[in-house]
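Budget justification note: compute hours in this period were largely spent on complex prediction jobs such as the one shown. Inputs:
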Amino acid sequence: MLKHTALHAEHLRLGARMVDFAGWDMPIQYASQLDEHHAVRASAGMFDVAHMSAIDLIGAQTRDLLRHLLANDVGRLRDTGKALYSCLLNHAGGVIDDLIVYFMDETWFRLVVNAGTTDKDLAWLRAEAQAFGVEVRHRSDLGILAVQGPHARERVHPLLPPELAQRAGEMAPFSAAWHGELFVGRTGYTGEDGYELVLPHDELRCIWAGLLNAGVAPCGLGARDTLRLEAGMNLYGQDMDETVSPLECGLAWTVSLTDTHRRFIGRDALEAQRLKPARKTVGLVLEGRGVLRSHMAVRAANGAGGELTSGGYAPTMKGSIAFARVAADAVGPYEVEIRGQWHAVREVKPPFVRHGKVLV
Amino acid sequence: MSNTPTDLKYAKSHEWVKTLPDGTLLIGITDHAQAALGDLVFVETPKVGRVLAANEACCVVESVKAASDVYAPVAGTVIEANTKLGENPELVNDAPYEAGWLWKLQPANPADVGGLLDAAGYVASLG
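Corresponding output:
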């Protein structure tokens, strides 16, 4: 029996093709996945991501707990609502999950974590939180709605209490503003500007209806995947998992080692690896027709090998792109094996697309 | 509920066949197939002049989800391929029985078409 979000009936009403994602019945696409992708880059699209979880951490020692748990340093979060993207690591330096953490106040931080890892994350957090006396509250009373695109924010503002709309309109990217349980984060997974709204299920339905009325396109998980890949963003479970360190999957920039006294979980393993990492991730663009896909074999000019972690068709680029995990000493140019034939690919530094513009 | 025109013949592997007035065959994939594949991004049609055996894989349709083979419903020679699909692969999604046709075949044996499924038979085969 699959789980339903607050918008499940809406997805069916709109004729969405549904799929089981992490035990939730979720929309993959409504009419055309490609049209949905283009709508986000050109204007505004919205995604029901209520299968993801908001977790509130409450207590006087919450900041200390998170400085102990997260590879990125929440010590840097001083302004109300400021957010960070971070990995949660195990003792071997492998990634348990990637998440966004918001500083709410000195006794309250909010995490947004992936759907498939929620249970695992909660167990880990609860075990570690005990020593710090921090309460871990899974906010299953709240859903999450992502509204993304150059016009996304202005479509949301009229649907918020005016005072909240004002504060949201003025805040910098990677910040949040809230009013009661209505939470607006200027974050996203598409490479476009926009919001991720965290709010009670009834309010979420209302805002969805208001946005639909304003012409915002409903978008499914299919478009979500093509957008994030073009934006150079990792997908947990595909681009990294517990056997992969952030240094190996392009996330070294999310690891803060500056404060040498901050011995976060996994730090020792990362410091040992930094001198000689085993693997690295590169961005690839296929020259010519065809589609790169996960698990295709890659070979480097110097004989080193590897495989694609994420790959697919990039609608804004009208071609195919991928992330490849290869031996750390691999040197391009690279080739990828597609259905028995080796094809030339161009190595690039992600992101591939940002704010609607192709960068590579 | 997908569309399966009654004036066409079908293969279980989701190809449709239309016999043209001059006896040549127009071939494409069904509405059921295009819906299952999702948005197409590339189509690799067979080369003109290629001789095909019945059920030979001769065309590749690549969607956002996966690449799939398309098979020759009957034996024959490829006499034309739909060149519009190079720029506009989505024609297969939007009009699978009209503008989204894949290739034209000169059948080796015109009677072979009789052995294909009719619309009811194809729908029944979908289970």
